[in-house]
């Protein structure tokens, strides 16, 4: 395993007025043995960053260090095969004419290991992904999920110090995804550091020790999955990671013990607030879709008009509109018992709210 240090990475495609800046000053330190997910919308630069770490893409400026090795810097680009990293691509990238065994053997053969030394290592890697029985098949005789497990075995067989994953589950159906997530989770025991690119929030939050949220080539926030969901630092993270509702509100009293009294219209409630005694009255609140409970019609709370209801098995996803002067759209998840119907006016109470940090101003409200 190895620490990965990225310092002020810039990458653009094309030049002059037509240059497209895919990475704009990305700096980050990943700890040795850490599982880090790179999460962001399409085009945010995740794959470019992963390929730059792998050495498959050169960078225009900045430095990349893996362990003690400087692998990319001005005038320096260490080739991928010399970086000691394993890569798992979305498309498996297996050799079609080779057996499963030989595909997994390939990186060991490249590193000069004898057949006698390599063979048990291949079988051990295949065992980790439950594929020993299929060692003699070719990729054409495997399902999509099995092919991807071969790709996992091939990435870990050489015991690289870093394993990079580029959307490895994107082409798999829901059931196979969960199975693959178990295998990827088990790969933690290989002691490799892992960097995992995805645009899928669930995968990133479920697997990673820390998640790096990228937007337009810049880092928005680096945090543990829990903090990312509960304490988003920017509007983009609040919306993209937690599908949070962002509302303008008033602070009634400064935070004490991490909670402030806030108001939406004439409804007062407590919100988590780490702004260290800020008395600024105008603020933005982040309310997760699950932050609401249905109250009695005359209880203190917010009135919302239900516009769309989507049954989700054990809960309902609801699009609603806040009634009153604000009239903003809200995305809610209500429990099965709520039985919301289109056209209902519901009274909701807020059971959890987060005061957004002030840094980015209040100009981007809603
Ligand atoms: N070879 C290239 N030439 C020109 N532009 C490129 C090239 N590769 C990537 N880009 C652009 O750089 C930006 C970042 O691309 P990248 O593939 O890193 O994004 P991503 O976050 O991985 O997106 P996705 O989830 O869709 O794969 C995109 O706007 C993309 O169009």
Automatic annotation (TrEMBL):
SUPFAM superfamilies: P-loop containing nucleoside triphosphate hydrolases (SSF52540). Residues 4-241 form the ABC transporter domain. One of its GO terms (cellular component) is ATP-binding cassette (ABC) transporter complex, substrate-binding subunit-containing. One of its GO terms (molecular function) is ATP binding. Keywords: ATP-binding, Cell membrane, Membrane, Nucleotide-binding, Transport. Pfam families: ABC_tran. The keyword Hydrolase does not apply. SMART domains: AAA. Signal peptide: none annotated. InterPro entries: AAA+_ATPase, ABC_transporter-like_ATP-bd, ABC_transporter-like_CS, ABC_transpr_MalK/UgpC-like, P-loop_NTPase. PANTHER family: BLL2173 PROTEIN (PTHR43875:SF10), MALTODEXTRIN IMPORT ATP-BINDING PROTEIN MSMX (PTHR43875). This is ABC transporter domain-containing protein.
